[in-house]
Design brief:
- By secondary structure, the protein is α/β, with parallel strands linked by helices.
- It folds into two domains: 202 residues, P-loop containing nucleotide triphosphate hydrolases (Rossmann fold); 197 residues, Rossmann fold (3-Layer(aba) Sandwich).
- It contains 14 helices and 16 strands.
Length: 412
């Protein structure tokens, strides 16, 4: 379905055309009309599926700009996702009088207060900063909110925001619409769903598909001591427009960044310990393609829309299935193609076997293929049987066309 087929305000259609939006993604098709009709929604969709626009477009359509009040509240787990939301909605609403605004920690409350006193129709907030305002000021009035969105709801639970969500949602005593969006549906969400989602429409686009369709999963089996050299060789040989390289800790990220800075230009490093201004600066430089390789901790693994990323590289093996899904979801977004490369050592073979089975991954191996049939259930290591020497299938290499579009060409 195309946006031009929807009964949208002309100002919104003009903005979407300027943004290059033509076809709705599956999550947008499934949720657009139900959101406009006021239904509660519980939506599970792959990361990179277009959830931000799935919320933003109908919200801008429904807002009454003549009413100077917060009419929609969007709760997100991180400052970066809040900034992404406000940028996206600002673009959608550029030809209207609808005003979005984001509040989050690490930024002056006084400046945020001044803006909130002026005019805000759609408020995007992290739970902690919103509670700061509700407890300590009278600046925010939620009594006119007609739609509340909880995005990355599963990540909020993991980050310990469940009590904050409980408190915020309990403050909305007027009749309103509630939208929950998440990539996964952990058991802990059930109580929130039962309490705050009355007869929701359930949309589970990724119940049988746990990764973007355009994502190709590459793996390289290596000894731990050879992993850095394997990464450097991969970065030199592969045609990469931009890549996020994930590490499991700040210390690992700092060490890897030092190693790469001596061999490549345009290296960046992002982690949760940076000041907000520094983090925002790095993200903006990455968006402008001033950084080619960005080393990152899991801070960058959720929600952020880097549509130009061609590769995600797991230098450190991710801690769990959800972490793998969220990291690799930084590429192959909105129907595009992308490559996820994961370096694997003996210690990860058992969990790798579990990942393949649970996420239904068809792996593309670089170099030697470990024999996962011989992996011990106890320590994750192979027995003394030799690994296979053949490749599982040809390795698709990315090629950048003159118009900037990416294509995959098979090389044996």
């Amino acid at each position: 379905m195309k946006f031009s087929e929807l009964d949208l305000k002309p100002e919104i259609l003009r903005a979407l055309t300027q943004m290059g939006y033509q076809d709705l993604t599956p999550i947008q098709e499934k949720t657009f009309l139900p959101i406009l009709s006021g239904k509660n929604i519980l939506a599970r969709a792959e990361t990179g599926s277009g959830k931000t626009a799935a919320c933003g477009i109908p919200l801008v359509q429904m807002i009454d700009p003549s009413l100077n009040a917060i009419q929609a509240l969007i709760l997100v787990p991180t400052r970066e996702l809040a900034l992404q939301y406000v940028e996206e909605i600002d673009n959608i609403a550029r030809h209207t009088d609808v005003v979005p605004f984001a509040i989050f920690g690490g930024f002056s409350m006084e400046i945020q207060k001044a803006k909130l006193r002026d005019r805000v129709h759609i408020l995007i907030a992290t739970p902690g900063r919103l509670i700061d305002f509700l407890y300590h000021t009278s600046t925010i009035d939620l009594s006119r909110v007609r739609t509340v969105v909880v995005d990355e709801a599963d990540e909020m639970l993991k980050m310990g925001f469940i009590e904050d969500l409980d408190f915020i949602l309990s403050c909305l005593i007027q009749e309103h619409q509630t939208l929950f969006f998440a990539a996964t549906m952990p058991e802990e969400m059930n109580r929130l769903i039962r309490t705050y989602l009355q007869e929701p429409l359930r949309v589970e686009l990724n119940k049988e598909q746990v990764a973007p369709q355009g994502l190709i999963h590459h793996f390289q089996y290596t000894k731990h001591r050879d992993r850095l050299n394997a990464l450097i060789e991969y970065l030199k040989d592969e045609q990469i427009s931009q890549a996020i390289i994930f590490c499991n800790s700040r210390r690992h990220g700092e060490k890897l960044t030092r190693e790469l800075e001596g061999k490549f230009e345009s290296i960046g490093y992002i982690h949760g310990g940076l000041e907000q201004s520094k983090r925002t600066s790095i993200f903006e430089r990455f968006r402008r393609k001033e950084i080619t390789f960005m080393v990152a901790t899991d801070l960058a693994g959720r929600g952020l829309d880097f549509s130009h990323v061609s590769h995600v590289i797991n230098y450190d093996y991710p801690c769990g299935l959800e972490s793998y899904t969220h990291r690799t979801g930084r590429t192959a977004r909105m129907g595009r193609s992308g490559i996820a490369m994961t370096f694997v050592t003996d210690q990860e073979l058992r969990v790798l076997k579990f990942l393949f089975r649970m996420n239904r991954i068809d792996p593309v191996w670089h170099g030697d293929i470990p024999n996962l049939q011989t992996v011990s259930k106890h320590d994750g290591k192979r027995d003394d049987k030799k690994h296979f020497k053949k490749r599982s299938r040809p390795i698709p290499r990315s090629r950048i066309l003159p118009n900037g579009e990416r294509r995959l060409a098979l090389h044996p």
